[in-house]
Amino acid sequence: MSMVLDVFVGNTTIMDMDIYQLWLDGLTVREAVKARMDQGALLECEANAEVLMSDTMDQFRTFQLCERLLHSPTKLANQLLFQIPSQHQRMLIEKYYEFDSVFAREVLGKKLSKGTKKDLDDISSKTGITLKSCRRQFDNFKRVFKVVEDLKGPLVENIQHHFLLTDTQARDYAAIVFFANSRFETGKRKLQYLSFQDFAYCASQLIQYWTTGAVDSMVEDMDVDLEKEFLHELKDLKVLVNDKNMLDQHKVLVCAALRGKIKVYRLMEANFKVIEPCRCDRWTLGEVTLFLTQYTNAAHGLGTFSRQVVWDRYMGVIRSCILRMYHE
Amino acid sequence: MPGKLKAKIVAGRHLPVMDRASDLTDAFVEVKFGNTTFKTDVFPKSLNPQWNSEWFKFEVDDEDLQDEPLQITVLDHDTYSANDAIGKVYIDIDPLLCSEAATRICGWFPIYDTIHGIRGEINVLVKVDLFNDLNSFRQSSCGVKFFCTTSIPRCYRAALVHGFVEELVVNEDPEYQWIDRIRTPRASNEARQRLISLMSGELQRKIGLKVLEMGGNAVVGYLQCFDLEGESGLVVRAIGTASPNTNTHSNTAPASNACNSPSKDSKEATWAMFKQPVLDISFPLIGVLNNQFRHFLFLSVLSGMGSGGSAGKEAGPLKTLLRQHTQSALEQREFPFFTLTCFPPGFLVHVGGVVSARSVKLLDRIHNPDEPETRDAWWEEIRQEIKSHAKALGCHAVVGYSESTSICEEVCILSASGTAAMLNPRFMREGCLDAGGSDHRLSRQPCGFCHIPYDEFNMPFPAQLTYCYRCRRQKVPDVLFTTIDLPAEAAVTGKGCLIQARLCRTKKKAQGEVNATAISNLLPFMEYELHTQLMNKLKLRSMNALFGLRIQISVGENMLLGLASATGVYLSALPAPGGIQVAGKTPSDLNYDQHIATMQKRINDTITKNKELYNIHPPESTEELVGSPIPDRQRSRLFRSTSESSDELLELDLSHGKKDAFVLERGSVTMSINMFVSSGFYSCNTEVMPGIYNWTSGLQMFTSVRVYRLSNANLTNQGLNKIFTELCENLLKSLYFKLRSMIPCCLCHVNFTVAVPEEELIQMGAVRLNCVCVCGCVFVCLFVSGSGENEDQLQFSMELCADSTPSNNQPTSKPSVSSAERCSPLPEGRSRSLRSTRSMPCGAPVAVVKMTPLSFLPGTRIVKYLGIINMFFIRETTSLREEGGVSGFLHCFIAEVFAMVRAHVAALGGNAVVSYSMKECVFMENPNKNQAQCLINVSGDAVIFVRESEQEATPPLMSSGQISSTGADGTT
Prior knowledge:
The structure holds 2 protein chains of 2 kinds. In chain A, 63% of the residues lie in helices and 3% in strands. Chain A is mainly alpha-helical.
């Protein structure tokens, strides 16, 4: 005797969030049943393996049928096929768009293309996340990227509007979109120690202050592209490094301000290379903060330095990014 | 007489991509009614078209309005090739024809395609202007209301109950017409859906006409069935109870019971014609008649009989008069049948017991669809049979009446069953209910309906009578089986529970007459065994009455399946059931005796345990009132007849009443003892669970379908029985597990259906079996009082959450940097935008529509009935594997059916479906060709409900107080 067909449909769709998580994790039905048994599901309601199997199959099928709707979460609220209570709807979406930061870190800065998708099995074996789950997360990234790509308005808001995500989730997705678009080289060996959250923070800073959207809020791609004009202006800041006279003057000012407060300090050759030397010398976070503050303020003291606004805009972001990146 | 139907196509959304090149669709809509078709403009290149069409007006006869559905087809415009159909929506406009029901249909409907399922939605607005019809020769019956609910609908009052109406229409099944060979599956499915929609419209109209002729204005307990007879055609039949409902506001409760006892003087024995013991139930009359086999069965089980001789001395001439009046009033009608299962208080005077009849027929081609006489005649015979059985029980009416069929190739089993009962005559007379309370001096008794309606000395079958345990004046039977719901006034001890008897019988594969004979020979044994199982299980739970009994016998190619479900209760008026004794066939063996002893102990333990579980603690009666008036001579005769009843496995002796010795064979004992019990779960197949009164409004309706494949190896009777029982138990277990989050909860109105689908492509060594379909409804009932407080706390914490969210979402958090050092030239607007909380997307979320097989929603009050929902869908696929196999396919289809029902209800302005049932669920598959097909028929009543306040969560029983209160608040 074998069961050919086994279906359970409720008027209000019943969804078990624990099983949903197992499904999202990319487990097969058999693995999920095992996982549930390990969690002690058999103790409830005098269930047996058969019952558990049937329940799991059923739930997996429900999620599969729902998956299509989850691809465009706005449809979930006004579709007619499943009657799902709104708090469940929110949970479904939230969990579906959750991702592992380990995975996100791997994909960060890569082009969201077919080629990358083929490499997912490497990432899967490296991170221990099932391939199925990797695919879902990758497809989520790609889907969000595709939808938001050509939209006007602030990036985070667009993501929230189209995918009904929470604030934090939307911000994370914004970071992913930002990196996917500008393709910073996040894979460098020196940067390996940084987590996805570090990058997400930097991205949010960059988006907030450096992109075109920071100036004009009605441009296409406003939050994705860095403002060109600003980048041009940045070149002018190079005088601080290039002009020997200016550099010396700046150094003196910074040193004067810091004297006595920091035991060991080095002359900074260039402002980009702050973190490594500091790490070598084991500065405390407080010391770094102090240094950067003085470094920024000192520039104001340079009489010949004329680009105060650009300098502030530049240093503001750099400062917060460096502080964030400054950890083990 | 003409009416004007107006339809407007507003918009579409979520349409499928029909043009691969542009990933868009050029959609337009055809609106068709009868032979008239209108079209909207093409809305180019959009998946969310806005047609905003003009009003399409159809001027039609109201006859057509009743028969035809409004047919809306969404198509994709193609310049060069034929336009592609996206899908269709059929809208039944019947609800608009009643002045009191819905006024317009307006809302989003899923666009349905029989191959692809739901493909987007369309927003439609429909109205009807009806002109008054004064023609007395009219063919239409607009204005007659239909209810699926098998009780008097909550916001109405019955002024008069007329009785039984039935009608039957037949047609050729388009699936089996020659044209089906050349048309596409889609066209054939659509032809079928349309035909059935037409037929059910026609059927309703014809029934309506009959009702009007009788002077009624409504049909309650409307039950419509399809018989897909394959080659020989398609039969749609319906039965219902005609009654003029008035939506009165009067607060007078329907008067109480008029007769508390049957008149003792009128022992004319007109209603005790059958004197032979009925417990050897079968007297198959097989006669060959026009190639049709007839087989009737009489199972009128165990209800008491004989009116309690000396009791009821107050029975005066008045009551005799009343009784005579009833009889004449009812006998004027051809069939004094009622499809209702729940009655106004006082309506039922006495209940006799279950009456049922079955007949095996050979189907032949329907030659002339306009004269469905053969089918009519078949049912006529069965109804006559039922009527005579009821008479034998001393009853003049049958309540809780239903009819069903089971078809396998050309053999068809027609079954009908009901409960013989005596009704209060006042409900049959014009104006009596409105007058109200004229007979108040006769007090109503909670045990009245248990009293036997028949003559003690002319009992149609042996039964042990005792004096009623409540009033001590009238005789009651020891066990009572009925098909109706538990009357509201009945006194119950403890809780009820679902009791099932399951049975499989193999038969040889045969054709035609041989097959029919084989089946009719098996039927009586099956009935008998089912009955015995029910009896045993009832005793095991120490209960003494069954309500909502439904016996289904379905026929397959090489087996017959029987499934009886009922809700067992302990009626306080009836005597406590006796114990069960195990007896071996060879009592000489010592080991065997020991075995029997342990068995006996287990049984006794189970009974004690069950008493605890169901909280059955009847007051011990010290005085023995049992006086069996049956002469010894007669009793011995009974013994003889039962032993002759030839079932070698089971011997049943019912004549001992209280100290009953139930003799069982071992196999059946283990089967019935090993029942599954889960704490916190209750189940029953009646509307309300006896003994539980604190319902909450948490409600979950579900449908579950299972199909098993059996291997040929274990095709023996016993092996099959075991498997079948396991299947049913497993299904229940699964349900409990699924719904564990709702504990404590109760599965109400669980409706099991079994089928043995015929399989043309039987694989070697495997036969398809049982499609068990459960349609039930789950309630959460909290036993803890003060649930209101919990709610408050919950709300409070939720408010806290809402407060805390914005503060968590500050744009950037820099813990180490003080606000003075803000280095951000950030535009203030951006941070605000980040902080904005999520809002749900454009467009209002879909309104929640509740569905329930019950006739009420706990904790709510139904304020308006919007009309009947009766829908038929076909779904077919040629890519079964891609859709997730059979389970995926059916899962999706059932979800789609739910969605369409909800959409229709919402469009009518309703927020719930009550008395919902899935009448038909036929599933066929061909995995080799990657194909499957499924047919589903659903029905129910669309209603508007409002929530009562938490405190008023009273037992939603049909009490007189509630009727008057709902009547007072009913809308007009």
